[in-house]
Amino acid sequence: MERKKIAVLIGSARKESFSRKVARTLMSVAPDSLEMVIVEVDQIPFYNQDLEDAGATPPAWLVLREQVRACDGLLFVTPEYNRGLPAMLKNAVDVGSRPPGKSVWSGKPAAVVSISPGPLGGFGANHSLRQSLVSLNVPCMQQPEAYLGNVAGMFDAGGNMTADSTREFLTKFAASFARWVERQTA
Ligand SMILES: Cc1cc2nc3c(=O)[nH]c(=O)nc-3n(C[C@H](O)[C@H](O)[C@H](O)COP(=O)(O)O)c2cc1C
After folding, report:
1. Is the Cβ atom of 107 under 6 angstroms away from ligand 1?
2. Could you tell me if the CB of 18 is within 6 A of ligand 1?
3. Which residues pair with 146 in a beta bridge?
4. Is 19 in the pocket of ligand 1 (CB under 6 A)?
């Protein structure tokens, strides 16, 4: 079976980011049919149409678009900021959606995982992102949903996941996602 390349987009640039640790856990338990690569979104200038209109498109925008274009699917792992999506990740979504008619997101199968040290698991961020994905024509896996709460206690000092039940859940989640990608790209 041909491996599917998945862009992993993380909504935090923090050194000890739980989102990144969860993303790394997902990458380690994902089936072999998925080749997961992290696409960094923390150095992308804010979208401003004037730059594009003036022929001064920032190189980082072009790099992001190229990296996403080269992938078959998308895995978003994000914290929640003030019940919404962190600006950094929303900016990447916006940059990839332009110029009009040339969105790099359209048609790529996706899944969303939200995390929080609190109990609610980033539900607001998860669904705020899903709202944008609808308008971007991104077929997003509906089930299983992934809202990971209380993540602070789930890792050892080396960033390895020690919460067995969550690792098991992420393993099943990744397997479902692989099937979703397979179906959508068949
Ligand atoms: C500006 C800001 C707003 C936040 N708002 C929320 C929130 O609405 N809900 C929540 O569960 N956590 C919120 N948090 C806490 C984050 O979930 C927490 O800092 C988390 O560790 C960030 O993700 P990371 O570990 O991947 O960097 C907020 C943090 C910041 C910095």
Report:
1. no
2. yes
3. 113
4. yes
CATH 3.40.50.300 fits 4-185, yes or no: no
Q: What is the DSSP letter of 153?
A: G
Q: What is the pLDDT of residue 2?
A: 86
pLDDT (tens digit, 9 = 90+) per residue, 87-116? 999 999 999 999 999 999 999 999 999 999
Give per-residue pLDDT as tens, 42-91. Answer: 999 999 999 999 999 999 999 999 999 999 999 999 999 999 999 999 99
Name the phi and psi angles at 116, rounded to 5. -160, 145
Using CA positions, which residue lies closest to atom 6 of ligand 1? 81
**Cβ of 128 below 6 Å from ligand 1:** no
CA distances from 66 to 21, 77, 82 (A): 25, 20, 30
User: CA 26, CA 22: separation in Å to the nearest integer?
Assistant: 6
| Token code pair at residue 83 | 């019940």
Nearest to 128 by CA among 88, 182, 90: 90
Q: Which backbone phi and psi does 76 adopt, to 5 degrees?
A: -100, 130
Residue 48 DSSP SS3: coil
The separation between CA 45 and the C-alpha centre of its own chain, rounded to angstroms, equals 18
Q: Which of 25, 32, 41, 23 is nearest to 5 (CA)?
A: 32
